[in-house]
Fold this sequence. Notes:
Radius of gyration: 33 Å
Helix content: 40-55%
Strand order of the largest sheet: 2-3-8-5-7-6
Strand content: 15-25%
Number of strands: 12
Low-confidence stretches: 1-6
Number of domains: 2
Shape: elongated
Amino acid sequence: MKKLRVSAREFLNSLRVGWFLAVRQIRHSGKGATALIIFIMTLTFLNLVVVSGLLIGLVTGSYQQYKDSYSSDVIVTSAARRTHIENSHNLLSFFENHPDVQLAVPRYVISGQVLGTLDKLPVLEENTNTIGARIAGIDVAKEEQLTGFSRFIKNGKMLEVGSEGQILVGTNLLKSYSSFADANIPGMDLLSNVDVGSKVRVTINNGTSPIVKDFVVRGVVKSKIDEISSKMFIPLDELKRLIPNSSKDYQEIAVHTLSNKATEVVNDAGEFMGESRVRIQTSENAVPSFLRDIETTMSILGNALSSIALVVASITVFIVIYINAVTKRKYIGIMKGIGISPVAIQSAYVFQAFFYGIVGSFFGLAITFGLLKPFFTAYPINFPFSDGILVATPGGAAIRVAILLVVTLIAGYVPAKIIVQRNTLDAILGR
Length: 431
């Protein structure tokens, strides 16, 4: 027991001596070399956090846009093989009276045929200017309050409360706006010569006799969310009058809840609906599975790129410490000769490597959370399918700091141990 206490005391003394030697070495080392090493460690940390954060942020931006632009916190849709939400009016009333719900917005969504040319017949052997489209009936005032729908207007004007005979058309349905217009994809039809002010004829099949009504295109809507750019929109009350009485139940309800209350609202709504067939999901759960797969792939790719940066950083620290130790072999031999323990000498170089890692991580954290993350939040990267942001959390950054420090300590310990293990006399004589 006494021997263990002595060993522990000697080890602590060696660490104190090593700390003293490390501070002395850092103070007397070249400022340019020290700054360069810290700069490399900072870049390594940024590579660890920023590269993977931006790759994941491409998909996370899609999640956020889907939530902000369409689903809000909770989205209710019809169950599989159902055309509407069962007991949707009772469910809407439940949401409107729930203490954790701030706003509930119902939507009708039906399928129809849209004719885009009303003033002339098609040329012989030319397809009619017709497409099948989903037509959504929206509560104009509530939709604006929930999603700020007017911000999606690319051309023309937003629908007004009480407006009749006017329609908004998504850019993915119009040949003059769609990004796929020049792709010539078989089976993909687009409306030609349709823009703001054009007349279109909507045909809704109600099971008996089709309902036909002409609309004037009031505006063209564009969003990176397919649910907006690939639909047509008319006021809720107008679509309600067009569909048969047997289809008055809503197809969608978007719900905005108090902060972090979405899961509780979903559970309460599920209990309220009982055996009624309906799909009630938080916005996170409603995201398609293929986006989850893309997120996983991006995470793996980001980690692979980050591991390369770790290898580069570890090699850099190894070389710096090794050269530093080799050039001071005589100095190390003299220290060993006067009785300074090898542990103290090794720990001096480990502390020196730790200094580089901790200072580089500090600058990396400051740049990431003080500069890059606010910048990409304010100015997201404009990708065709999302607005890319930087995904970086304090917990994730802490893990990467720990990984960087462990790698740095190992890279500092190995060369120091190699040099210290050499024969003391040979080191003093420079042999």
